[in-house]
Amino acid sequence: MRFDVITLFPAQFAALTEEGVVARALQRQLAQIHLHTPRDYTTDVHRTVDDRPYGGGPGMVMRYTPLRLAIEAAQAEAAAEGVQSRVAYLSPQGERLDQRQIERISAAPGWVLVAGRYEGVDERLIEDCVDEEWSIGDYVLSGGELAAMVVMDAAIRLLPGVLGHADSARQDSHSSGLLDCPHYTRPETIGDRSVPEVLLSGDHQAIERWRLQQALGRTRQRRPDLLQGRGISEVEQRLLDDYLLEAARSRPRVGSEQSE
Ligand code: 4FV
């Protein structure tokens, strides 16, 4: 899979390309990331990529032409490698991304990601050149670069061969539509708390059931919205009921602590 990124700050992407899972995937040619700056597509001596907003107001807006030329150059480079790339603009006005969206993005041959700066880009650039608009969350970043890196990290790690053993992506939280179960490693006991017995049992079926029950329970308690979207089976409902009963049983009753 190929990503082309249009950005005024290419150096920022070292965070993704220099070390870690994505860096290894790039070294193994399981994915490609190409960076393009709109500044290379300016014609004035000051290489101007932004200008004041019509209608006044604070901040600056990224100019149409340098962005359009950079996008077209990136798409041409990808096409030369047989990759038809769609164009996505990262902004708070975009569709909120979730794991389902990331799986779809990861399955495509290529994307040109437009990382905005300042107040954003000229609206006509979005109308003319952008196929999809994506948001990583309802907050405002100083630039689209971090959002582009989030998307590329989440998408590239799903590619076959990128993660150690294929299972780990499938067992990810959210890939099942649920939050993740708790994880434990050595030492077995820390202070007065030890690892849940079932995890030491070697009974893989019981361990899988416990992990699913924990994922269901934590999702119900922390993100009930995810359960609405997903729905649960009868078996899962029974696991969840037991979890909630146990949680109710182990929750200190109000006023009980004083009596101690
Ligand atoms: C953003 C987000 C985001 C808005 C103005 C860049 C900034 C600045 N992108 N999800 N949330 N972008 O805040 O994707 O140009």
Summarize this structure briefly.
By secondary structure, the protein is of the alpha/beta class. The chain has helices spanning 14-17, 21-27, 64-80, 99-106, 123-129, 145-156, 167-170, 204-222, 224-230, 234-250, 256-259, and strands at residues 2-6, 32-36, 50-51, 61-62, 86-96, 110-115, 132-135, 189-190, 193-194. The protein folds into two domains: 2-156, 3-Layer(aba) Sandwich (Alpha/beta knot); 189-249, Trp Operon Repressor, Chain A.
Which features would summarize this protein structure in a list?
260 residues, alpha/beta, Trp Operon Repressor, Chain A, 2 domains, 5-stranded parallel beta sheet, 11 helices, 41% helix, 15% strand, elongated
Total beta-strand segments: 9
**Superfamily at the CATH H level of the largest domain?**
SPOUT methyltransferase, trefoil knot domain
| CATH class group of the largest domain | Alpha Beta
Predict the CATH topology of the largest domain: Alpha/beta knot
Domain tRNA methyltransferase TRMD/TRM10-type: 1-228
EC number: 2.1.1.228
GO cellular component, one term: cytosol
Organism: Lamprobacter modestohalophilus
